[in-house]
Structures are given as C-alpha cells and as structure tokens.
Write a structure and sequence with these properties.
Elements lengths: L1 E7 L11 E7 L5 H9 L7 H20 L4 E3 L3 E9 L11 H4 E10 L5 H7 L1 E8 L2 E4 L5 E4 L9 E2 L23 E2 L4 H4 L6
Helix pairs in contact: 1-2
Amino acid sequence: MVRYILQQIKITSSKAYGKWYAKNVVEETIDLDGLSEHMSHHNSPYSKGVIKGLLTDMIQCIKELLLQGMNVKIDDLAIFSLGIKNKLAAATEEEFTVSKNIEGVKLKARATGELMSKSLNLDATLKKATFVNGKITPATNSGESESADPSASNSPSTGSGTVDNGSGSSTGSETGGGSGIIPTPTDPEDDQPGGGD
C-alpha cells in the first residue's frame, strides 16, 4: 500500500502555484542487511549472509562496469548508466576543460519490466494519509483505498484499515532505518502532474 499526503505548491514562480498534488510517504528505508534478511525469508535456500555477499559483489561489479563506460541492465529492475554533471558551458570547443566545465558524474537508473510505471500502476494501491502534529496518520476514511492504475474505475475499495503510524518525525533522514514515517523531500517539479517519473 502506498500512502500519500496532499501538499500545496507555495513557490510563487511555479505555473502550478497554489495547486495541490499528492506526495508519497516513505514508511521506512530498507538497507542491504534488511533486504538480505527479507529475501532469505522468501523460500530461499540461501542465508541472509550469502544473499548479502552476492548483492555486495553485484554492486561492486555494476560500479566497475559503469566506470568502463557500459550500461548495466537488470531485467525487471533498471538499466543503470552514468551521466555527466556539467558545471559551465564553454564558449568554444578549444576552451573546454574537464576541471573547469565538468562537476562530476552521476548514477542514472531507468526502470525496466516489472518496475516500469505502467506495471507498477497495475499493482499499486494508494491510500491517503494526513499530517497531524508532526506525524503521518491515516486519513479519517482510513478504510478506503484506490488503485493507481489510471484505467481502473478508482472507486474506493475497503481495506483492513490497520496502519502502523510509527513514532518518527516527518523531518528525519530518509536514509536511516527505523519505523518512523517520513514524507519524501519536497521537490514539487518531480511530483506535479507531468513532472519527472
């Protein structure tokens, strides 16, 4: 279940100033240990340690291949590639230098297969949450949820209505573990209709 809160755009220079948009709520960030533990409980003959070792080696190999100028595709996950972060454009080709014009490189990931938006929309269920006194809580109609698939009827369906509210603050770090419920950092351009995906 993907929970969301509504936020109003307050950037006066934005074309969408004053309008409302949905922002997903991050329930918890799972690290490599947590993912390995989770995977080991899915009828796997491999222990958490074996799985973590394999994933750690995979990460190192992906980095090595990316730094050799290759893209790495993991089916039903993503195509990983590197991009260049430019600092400043050079007036001419002769004036261009790496130190003056390039800030660095960045990792890019483009979803594939089961993690592409069209596939996720078929599987996702959305549920509104509210932001009260610094904590995310279920909305008053906590038993209603809707499909994220735009072709679905989107008529509310009754869920179990049980939600762990956690104990964390909404201003915590997104990378820490724990059970706190944390809205993702606000970047209205990413989450506005027609924004980044």
